[in-house]
Amino acid sequence: MTLAAAHLKGPHVDFAGLSPLIALLAGAVLVLLAGLFRARWVRERAVGSLTVLALAAACGLTIWQWDSQKSIVSGALRIDDLSLVLNLVLVAGGAAAVLLAWRSEATREAAHGEFHMLLLSSIAGMSLLAAAQNTVALFVGLELLSIPLYVLCASEMRREHSLESGLKYLIIGSVGSATLLYGIALIYGATGVTDFGAIATAVSNNGLAGDPLLLGGIALCAAGLCFKASVAPFHQWTPDVYEGAPTPITAFMAVATKVAALGVFLRFFDVALLEAQSTWGPAIAVLATITIIVGNVGALGQSSLKRMLAYSSVAQAGYMLAGVVVGTQLGARATVFYLAVYLFMNLAAFAVIVARERETSFGDGIEAITGLSRERPYLALSLTISMLALAGIPATAGFIGKFYLIDAAVSGGYTWLGVVIVVGSMISLGYYLPVIAATWLRAPTDKEAPSGSAVQEHGMAVKLPRLAGGSPELEGEPSVAEPDAGGATANRPQPEVLFVAALAAGATLFFGIFPQPLFDLVHGAGGVLGLL
Amino acid sequence: MPSLSIFIWLPLASGVLGSLLSMRVRRAGPVLALAGAVATLALAIGYIADYSPATHGLQHLTDVMWIKELGIHYKLAISGLNVFLAGLTTLLFAAALLAANFRAQRGTPYPQLFFVLMTLAESAVLGAFLAQDLALFVAFFDLMLIPFYFLTGIWGGPDRVKATIKLVIYTLVGSLLMLAGAVATGVLASDQNGGHITFALSALQALPLSTGSQEWIFLFFAAAFLVKMPAFPLHGWMPDGYKAMPIEALMVFSGVLSKVGAYGFLAIVLPLFPQGAAHFQTLMLLIGLVSILYGSVVAFSHTDTRLIAGYSSVAQLGFITIGIFSLNPQGAQGALLQMVNHGLVVAPLLFIVLLLSERSGGSEDIRKMGGLAFRAPVFASIFLIIALATLAIPGSANFVGEFLILLGVFKAKLAIAIIAFAGVVMASVYALRLFIRAMHNRTQTGAVSREISLRDGAVLVPVVAVIVFFALYPQLALKRSEGSVSASVSAAHVALTPIAASLSPAYPGQPSNRQADASEPSRGPAGGSESSETGAVEAGEGSSEGR
Fold this sequence. Notes:
By secondary structure, chain A is mainly α. Helices cover 73% and strands 1% of the residues of chain A. Chain A has a two-stranded antiparallel sheet with strand order 1-2. The longest helix of chain A has 32 residues, at 160-191. By secondary structure, chain B is an all-alpha fold. Chain B has two domains: 1-270, no CATH class; 280-547, no CATH class. Chain B has 22 helices and two strands. Chain B has helices at residues 4-21, 28-50, 83-102, 111-130, 134-143, 145-155, 160-192, 201-205, 211-228, 238-244, 247-272, 274-279, 281-299, 305-324, 329-359, 377-390, 397-412, 414-439, 454-472, 475-502, 509-527, 529-546, and strands at 59-67, 72-78. The longest helix of chain B has 33 residues, at 160-192. Chain B is globular and about 70 Å long. Chain B starts with a helix and ends with a helix. The interface between A and B is large, with 40 and 36 residues.
């Protein structure tokens, strides 16, 4: 007995530090099992509730770990303010995705258990990524994040676009992963270590900042991460995948993937490779500039809201890179602040799109929200706040976030990048404002989608009656401006979607006026820069 | 007096409360919004009465740290620069809300939203006027545009969507540039402050930037303010915007929002970037001059009454611009007085446009009007007072304002002042042409001469009373603003000197400027006109010696 115990004495495992991750993975197993029950209420209600419960547990455990600064799993993961804050943001994004997917087609087609299991494991991967402190953990996290997402994108199995989106994401994501892996190998070749701390020491001690092997590794790693964060010129997959994926998944990808990718950018570049900042700084700054311009210009004139938001997310990634480029504590704080704000702004918009996809036959086309203010004033208000915040108008958190980023860029000696952010914001008015205009200034369009105009809309038209058939308690919501609309398009109210929209919009407004709590939250995140 | 926070947020609070109540009580929204605006007006009168010109510093200061990390204060205060503009804002918003109360908002899904947006606009404008923190000013400046986006877009005329997007993009492009400039100002100033970032105007003033930075930041701010005013090359949004906006919103937009741009030059740009202002003085004077000439010429060739008012505003704001950029106290004081005057005349003028169109079968074209004075003597006299004030007839406060402006410009650049006089003459052409074509001449078919109703009179008479009051007693505004104006101009006025000095081979440049900066506060505010005259003379001598 004693012999066996001595024999089995494994490495010290800090279960407290790992607890949020354990909660997520245990939750994933549980929902997979719960999804096997035959009773419909278990699949449709209990699985989702269990997922939210697992996320709540992870959130609670993250808060429990607050203020701890430690490396766990023999230095592979780092529990500090940066990873904890990002955990909170990720969990919030995940919970929103679960709520948005509550009645969606995707969960039904992919089976509830599997859908939610994949979602939870993807969040676990993101959480791992945000805490990664060596290159191996980074890669494991990245793959754990990506592989479930490939499947989730294709989870509306009977819709061609969803499958296409999943396949595209799989191929391009794999290229990105491979590039990253190769970069990691080169960095290992140059320094002989995998730990971020050891890399930083090796770079500064051996004077490797100009070493071609290391620089090549950095470049490939940057490219790989840029794929994930959809930074131009590695962004081409973004619009197609965002458009094709089921909207709740798009929302999840837009916010959570970005959080994880930018988080790892911060940790990898601003912590491990901070010594070489003078080398990679200008290069990433140029990438940020290209991203801002490509994203903003690409979003102009898009008639699909999801495509528009995809390009907008490219542009926002460019803004956030500005905080990474400067390599200062202020920059890291500004990036994390913007990530949190970005979560709220985007969730509000995506919630409205989800709601309208189910109410109209226009899918995510701009017609779906035309005249929205007369039919659904609260949705219109949420969408408006979200668009204003994304454009960076005062009294919304977007303004403060952008202000903080510009402040960080100018303080870090990148004044021109600050001006680029401003120019990008100007261009962005060209596509955010028309959405608001469509919402408030135009009368609702006829609810009949033009027949056979686009494949995607055609797909929607086929899909909708089935969705309506699936919900027996059709209420035929009394809508003022659409006397001709049949019962097929007016769906039952979706309290959870409205809840997400209202909460996200409310938070955007609240943190725009009283940003101090958010500043306090991200304050520690900047401190991690000096630690290694 | 109550805190300034109450003053600026009272309109919005009453507007929101009214719209919430209007679900239960009919007409609660409009009435409460109006009540809030009137209460704010009463507060503003209180602040004006309470203002003591002797202490020209900040009064009724509210200073709370808003965002610690960014050094942004929630800092509001009354000074000689904004006390009358705040008064003007509350007066015009009260008048516009009264007008809106009497006219049902036609064909709209949410009539109460109109009032919420108007009150939001009032709060934002008051905030912009009273903000004593650069970042807070930028925030309010951008915020005040949002309600007008919806006011124009939802309740506007036929071309409203296009006009709205044009208006917003023009203005926001300017204000985003200003945002970049503001952040740069704070960050660059913090370098001299041991990395301690702050955006409070008083602190920034104590940390002057290098000449090079001042120059590009000046251009960023100027872009924002010139679009807002609007000045000649950047006025492209104006014709569409004026045509599309509902009159009640246009009254305050033209009367007040354009003044925020001019106020920004006076309260922010001149104190913070004096050398930038001095460097671009000629450019700004030329922009002002061209605005005067262009605005006047177009105003007397247009037949659309709204556009006549719109282009006359371009011309009047051109006067205000050259007054400010004469960079001496007389010009700036004239400009400040003229800001108030112009707001006081243009808002009732636009309301009269509405009354005229109601009498000429819905058309706003002066060719469809004529003879409207026939049965409406009271209406005609009110209109005449406003028209005469617009053309700055001697005896009106506008005359005093234009006189001071031209006096200031005479000292700065003689040639520009002489050409600007043409604008004075042209003002009488377009103002009288508007009056005569509408009120006199033969009655056109479809036009009906009708006396002004009691309700419309209630909107106009208080504003006209204030016009008359200022005509009789312009000293009220002049005395109270004197100290603050010369304090705000002094740095830029001094900055003109090194430019003259830098022409000399010795190139004393920076040191002499610093010295001058240090000596200025003691003489600038106290000495008023005399000291600045000597300054101008010195500058002139310096340049002649240099050559």
